[in-house]
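Troubleshooting: if your tokenizer reports a length mismatch, compare your output against this known-good record of 203 residues.
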Amino acid sequence: APSGDYSEYNKVHLAIIPYQWGTSTIDTSASPIVSDGIVPTAYAVGWTSLLSEFIEPRKMLSAYEEWELPTLIYFDFDIGLRVNRTFNFATVMTDVQNKLIWYFDKNNRNFNEEIDFRDIYEFIMDPEEVAPEDNFDNISGVRNLIFRDIDVLNATIQAYGSSTYPRYAEETISGDNVLRTIEIGHDQFPALSIASTNITQEF
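Known-good structure output:
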């Protein structure tokens, strides 16, 4: 164990994001901080038993697993949007919003990621990035898309170089987090609070 703690020898800490939250996988409760957020509360014993059976023939002989509940880190955004004259602002805004939701879909994100507004901008504007049931056709009506602020709602972002997460992954202008990459921890998974995200019309 890197920490030198003998109790951690051969122990593998596992955090899982299920395809569907619920009593058959990971039970949740409503977040006390994020209005449209949840908090994982307990693994279903049957589910972890099934996962352990899958892991057993694939792990080292003396290793054993300890199940850790994932921590959802909720992001929100302040976005300025200007649309082309032939497009309706509301329809373009809806597609921008839906594509932001798709970016944060559990199928597209990972633990221990770095959240960077430049990556999100490229994802939103890329016509090849589509969902199985949505092509986001009205994204072509975007004239300007400006990320004015990025915030983490349910955790404190630590200073660059800190040993805890989430943290700024690089130093930039003090107090201007829109320019900073935010790195999350090994048991932390990025999520979106669409209720706290603002998309305003630019003229």
